[in-house]
Amino acid sequence: MTTEIISVVFAGVGGQGILLASEVTARAAMAAGYDVKTNEVHGMAQRGGSVIAQVRFGTAVPGPLVPPGGARVLASLERIEALRYAEYLAPGGLAVVSTQAVIPVTVSSGQAVYPADAEARLRRVFPRLLLVDAVAEATKLGQARAANLVILGAVAGELPLPAEAWTEAIRACVKPQHLEANLKAFAVGRALAAGGRG
Amino acid sequence: MSERQLLSGNEAIARGAFEAGVTVACGYPGTPSTEILEAVVRFKDQIYCEWSPNEKVAFEVAVGASLAGARSIVTMKHVGLNVAADPLMTFSYIGAVGGFVACVADDPGMHSSQNEQDTRHFARFAKIPILEPADSQEAKDFLRLGLEISEAHRTPVILRTTTRVSHSRGLVTLGERQAPRVVGFERNPSRYVPIPVWGRKMRVRVEERIGEMAAAAAVSPANRIEWRDRALGIVAPGIAYAYVREAFPEASVLKLGWSWPFPDALIREVAAGVKRLLVVEELEPILEEHIRALGIACDGKNLVPTIGELSPARLLEIRAKVDGVPWTAPVPPAEAADLPARPPVLCPGCPHRGIFHALGKHDVIVTGDIGCYSLGVFAPLNRVDTILCMGGGITVAHGMEKAGEKRRLVGMVGDSTFFHSGITGLLDIVYNCGASVIIVVDNRTTAMTGHQDHPGTGRTLMGEPTVSVSIEEIGRACGVRNVATVYPYDLKQVNEVLKTALASQEPWLIVSRAPCPLHEKKPVGEPRQVRTEACRKCKLCFKLGCPAIEAGADGIPSVNRLLCAGCAMCAQVCPAHAFEPIAKT
Questions:
Q1: Which of B52, B316, B322, B332 is most buried by a 10 A CB count?
Q2: How far apart (Å, rounded) are the C-alpha atoms in residues B293 and B12?
Q3: Is the ipTM of this complex over 0.85?
């Protein structure tokens, strides 16, 4: 077991399933015997706003919030949200980013512009970048809403937690009728990360 | 080994209530406090729990339970305590019988709140103790400690969390439930009736109690000095302790979990043992001012921000200042400098959108209120002009009208907000011959806080069916002669009723009724798609501010199928009939 504190930041848009991803990670770390603290955003910001969730584990975790440059992995379910929270990622850390674009109302109503070069920006900002078409992968499994588990599978490869801890955590967090699809989505993400594709 | 669970601070408080033998729990939803009662209801066979119409009512119900001898808790967000301040101030005099803890959640950083008030002021104001847990385990432990303090010193106690304590999860060791206290009110008017002759005696007792509690706080397990390097000592209440430990691992720390009445003995001890003293407290300099008043020199708000919440990043900056080294804040990459803002928005299919769209056609003042519909302030809806507090949407309109504002006044409140504190305002408008148009946007739930029941939903927190109180009947009983109900997805109907109401010189109550689709967990109707060949690029659909309608590069909208709830408002505003149900093709 490592003595350092390992931190993961999940970013995205309210309603994309960030809370589930962070809860599964926290439970997996707990199942592996670590002390765990997480933080989530509730309330107003959940209504389609930009949101993050933070998970930290280690032998003893003092607080729930990740310092800037403190995250081993930054996972984003929306591509430009990864840029918004880039400063959390530690030097050498991995960014796992869904290619999905969710266009904010500020863009549709003409007040702002969604960057056309998002992918190029991501490649410049994150030396270690794993771009995943998580929605397409999840849709292939017949469960488009499981995109969060595809991303989480890719995150898992970067964390020192055993496979059985992840399975146990997913089982604890997901409704039985969605369990199989979510486990498959997780496996797909894990395989994508292992293959280095993106 | 005892069982450990990963619990949020709010879930831990609920667990603490269960273990400590609490039998009555009341509250009104408010971020970040809401999940406490939602977790208490898991123990509903052993704890009576209710969503009360507002925090004052909830507080008083919990007082009644305490006076009958039961252990009780009441939950609310920080601004909720303003509503409950009246019973709070006098219950301090009367004092608890069964343990009484008010669980009040502050929101430093204003993640989901209209202000950043510091509840610690209320504890000092009401002369009652306050406990400030730093994590979930302490949240559970301090709930029990609070009940014990309450009974030992015959005082209500505030358990103050902040957003980061309430909504962070940590491992918590579970315990067994202890037997609840025996209930039976003992009549004793001089103890329970604060008429002046007895109230003056209570007043003296309140003052004596402070000294006794300060002595108890100095030896309480909730407070401790951790001696490390003596060059720097830090006083850290609540979650500030967690940030301090990470940023100043070598410093000595006075960790405060029971922060008022101030444990002067501990403060003097730590100050005497270190070369330099720093107070790291979120929000107001309450401890700092007291420590200076004791004649002890310290650093505090000269280095620690008063505004906003503390964070590891802010602590690194404070550390640099303490060490006297230059601080360079982490710079976001240039690639993130021009990202479009992504504020929270009304959901796809939200019924409130129909009301805002209709209001957009009129030159009226819209006084808004607290709830999802506060999001109507953002572009492109731009249809909320003021927000003050719960119920203020009704009364502020009346005040503007009486001041002589020439435009028609429209007050807007939600269903839960109407029951919370809208009724008295409506009564005022009728009684004092006002003429505002009040719209209750009734989505059949307390939506913003995560869909809690209220007196209009026909169901209690404990899941029992009950009376569904009619907003229209309340309006008529208040004396409103013009009461109308509209279906907000029918824009034509909304426009006609609104036009009639605005043309009259009398008060109107319009109830806009359609359940929150997010709560219903089902679409409103058939999802739409755009017939691009029909689109005239007039952009009227974008005025709805619907997240499912996305702008293409060519100015032609497209509907995001993953988001569309099928409310068909786009089809109603489109002059070219370009939005068609997907099912047709």
A1: B52
A2: 36
A3: yes
